[in-house]
Each structure stands twice: as C-alpha cells, then as structure tokens.
Amino acid sequence: MGYNYTFCAQLSAEIGARWLSEYVKGNLPLPSPQQMLEDVTAELEWRKKDRPYAFVSGACVTPFTFHYIDELLQDMGLSTRRKPGNLFGELMMPADPSAYKNLRQELQAKQQPSLNDSAIALDRLVENHTGLR
Asked: What's this model's pTM, rounded to 2 decimal places?
C-alpha cells in the first residue's frame, strides 16, 4: 500500500485506506517475504515496460493509477470491474469514483461477519473520513 500522486489521489488514498482497514481487521493476510519481493520485482518490470520513461520514478499519471487501485482491489478479493457487462464503456468512459462507493458492502458480502468492536470502530472512522461505504 502506498500513495500515488495523481489527479486521482483522493480515490487512490481512499481505496488504500479501505485496504489498510481490512488489514488491521485481520481480513487481509500479507504474503510471504519471498512473494513480496517477487511482487515488487514484477511491479518494477511493469513500470519499465508499460510506463513512459518520464514517470518511472516520479508522479504517476491517471491511467496508471487504476493499475494501483486494481492491485488493492485484487488484494481484498474484489472485482476490478466497476461497470459490469460493459467492458468497452469501462475502458473508454471517464473514471467514476462512485463506482467504488460500496466497497464495504462488497467486502461484507464476501466475508463472514466476525468483526470485533475495535474493527467496527476503525471501519466507521475510515468511512467517516473518506466517504467510502
């Protein structure tokens, strides 16, 4: 989890906060150190191959922000498709942050409710400060 400096900084920060909330609640186990190293290596290779040279170690432009957001969603076991049934529309239309507004409900539908009071309080805190539900 990190921070992407882009025009979509608020959306990526909010998705990152949801990811962190899931980790703190124990719903998101970390991979092994070996897997983390492999993931970092794959990310660096992707950046070299698919990102413009000027942005390899600097600010991330909008299309690449969604690569990061998709990684966070995949970590949480959620679909990266935000407009079901309309792949063309998803690829060609402007980003719509409201497509991410029900992440909490998606996570709850995916998991058995086993939250303790602290996790519920953290979830509410994230929701109140980010607007994600």
From this structure: 0.67
